UniProtKB/TrEMBL annotation:
<dbReference type="InterPro" id="IPR001086">
    <property type="entry name" value="Preph_deHydtase"/>
</dbReference>
<dbReference type="Pfam" id="PF00800">
    <property type="entry name" value="PDT"/>
</dbReference>
<dbReference type="GO" id="GO:0005737">
    <property type="term" value="C:cytoplasm"/>
</dbReference>
<protein>
    <recommendedName>
        <fullName>Prephenate dehydratase</fullName>
        <ecNumber>4.2.1.51</ecNumber>
    </recommendedName>
</protein>
<keyword id="KW-0584">Phenylalanine biosynthesis</keyword>
<keyword id="KW-0057">Aromatic amino acid biosynthesis</keyword>
<keyword id="KW-0028">Amino-acid biosynthesis</keyword>
<feature type="domain" description="Prephenate dehydratase">
    <location>
        <begin position="3"/>
        <end position="189"/>
    </location>
</feature>
<dbReference type="GO" id="GO:0009094">
    <property type="term" value="P:L-phenylalanine biosynthetic process"/>
</dbReference>
<dbReference type="GO" id="GO:0004664">
    <property type="term" value="F:prephenate dehydratase activity"/>
</dbReference>
<comment type="pathway">
    <text>Amino-acid biosynthesis; L-phenylalanine biosynthesis; phenylpyruvate from prephenate: step 1/1.</text>
</comment>
<dbReference type="InterPro" id="IPR045865">
    <property type="entry name" value="ACT-like_dom_sf"/>
</dbReference>
<dbReference type="InterPro" id="IPR018528">
    <property type="entry name" value="Preph_deHydtase_CS"/>
</dbReference>
<dbReference type="InterPro" id="IPR002912">
    <property type="entry name" value="ACT_dom"/>
</dbReference>
<feature type="domain" description="ACT">
    <location>
        <begin position="204"/>
        <end position="281"/>
    </location>
</feature>
<feature type="site" description="Essential for prephenate dehydratase activity">
    <location>
        <position position="182"/>
    </location>
</feature>
<dbReference type="Pfam" id="PF01842">
    <property type="entry name" value="ACT"/>
</dbReference>
Amino acid sequence: MKRVAILGPSTFSEEATRHFLGDSFTYVSYKLISEVFNATASGETDLSVIPIENTLEGSVHLHVDWLVHEVDLPIRAEWVFPIDMNLIGYPSPEPATDAANPYRHVRKVLSHQVVPAQCNQFMKRYLRDAEFEQVSSTAEGVRIVSTLNDPTVVAIGTAIASTNYGVPMLEREIQDHKDNMTRFLLVGKEAPELASSTDMKTTILVTLPEDYPGALHQVLSAFAWRRINLSKIESKPTKKKLGNYYFYIDIVGNMDSVLLPSAIQEIEAIGCQVRILGCYPSYSYNGS
């Protein structure tokens, strides 16, 4: 049975991964995303699951950087999963002094670094005076709260973490938008057996040649005249030279087609460097 590294336990990564991969894999939890990547890069696990993008937060830049700069692990699949943020902690034994804000007594909020952007409205309204402390995962925040048993310290995390660590749920679904979704990538050196999907994606990195005016326009034109849809294009520094960028591009299409390989050949012909991060099935959340 293949081993899958996840950020966990009791995290959104674990919840989403178990939903899509089921019981045919063995899950191994790590506290840090670097440990998740390195577990598969070193052969300790066969695959890793990486949260890569969120509806509200956008790309998780640290995770993209790891995928691009630190490891060589092809993308094997992607899926999206709904994310419900919950306020988790121990109720104050004292009556609320402010009827409009029952959480005015809270002094510290623990969670993952991406959480404030997803819960901005709630935190501004109810947790304005609380200090936000970044921890390695949403579940780690709940675990710490469970050890402190201090009503002034709360966490923002999953319902499963609330249950597993025995910490009460103070407020459900505090994210800014109810359709908050996170996109996860499955990466690994070998492709696993997965359910078939009619939707395929290809992710590439394109580094433009220096001193080539109009190079980006030509890159985009190579896709445009072939009517190839780009679902995402993002510029990021190469970390080699100031002002030198690569483009992270998600393409709706398969390398088995005729048009996509020819588009990449055209891009390389003008002097661009192209690195293919993966050609993989894409799965949507169906609620089941």
